[in-house]
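Review form for a predicted model. The reviewer records the input and the model, then writes brief findings.
Reviewer: anonymous (R2)
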Amino acid sequence: MLFAVMLLSIAACHSDFKIGSFTTNEALYRAGLAEFQRGKWDNAISAFDKLTADLPARDTLLPRSHWYLARAHQQNREWVLAGTSFTRLVESFPDDTLADDAALESARSYKKLWRRPQLDPTYGESADAAYTTLFGLFPSSPLIPQAKLEYAELQEMFAQKNYLSGMYYLRRKAHDSAIIYFKDVVSKYPAAPTSRLAQLRLVDAYKAIHYKDDAADQCAELRRSFPDDAEVRQTCSDVGPPAASTADSTKATPPATGPPTR
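Model under review:
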């Protein structure tokens, strides 16, 4: 019984937060910040959402209101709303001290929504755009090293998505389609770990349709990049050097000639 009374008391306190009861933007900002610090995310969202709509463009509280609105959405796991709010801060106040933080948090919010490479990559693409904005607008930000690590993880997910599509077609012997996806991995995400797997599967696809020269070229690249890799040795064990290399090795050395005589 006592527990139920306490819950009702808490609920009553919660309902006392009335946006219209604050007569100035400054008072509403302070109240919204207090609600944020108390973990009352819905109240904080209500306060900062109103402030972002009402504050003049030059008011110093406006970028902070965007920031706390976005952070409250994050705490509510409302990732799209969080990403959108952070992006507005970056776009409206690129010179603010919070702008680089907002760009990174926007990327992280969208990245939360793309959990597996098999899923629709739309939110991954939004995260990619936010990371790219951070790198482009704030190259000297102290957040860059960590952001680059996170961005590499995102690029690996894109690489895995295309690799899985390539494997789908390879298993169905649609080799030309598989090659397109594997080559896309290699060209767009060369630093991703999955790039190595895509190159190996390219060799398998080339061998299956008897593209000997392409297989030889790909194996030559794999041998240069992964000289001690056992899987590379196995996949390329029956693939010789590229035709151009063979031709070069059999060319006769032309005889030396002296200066022309008159």
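Findings: Residues 1-14, 246-262 have pLDDT under 50 and may be disordered.
Further findings: The domain at 23-142 is CATH 1.25.40.10 (Serine Threonine Protein Phosphatase 5, Tetratricopeptide repeat).
Recommendation: see findings above.
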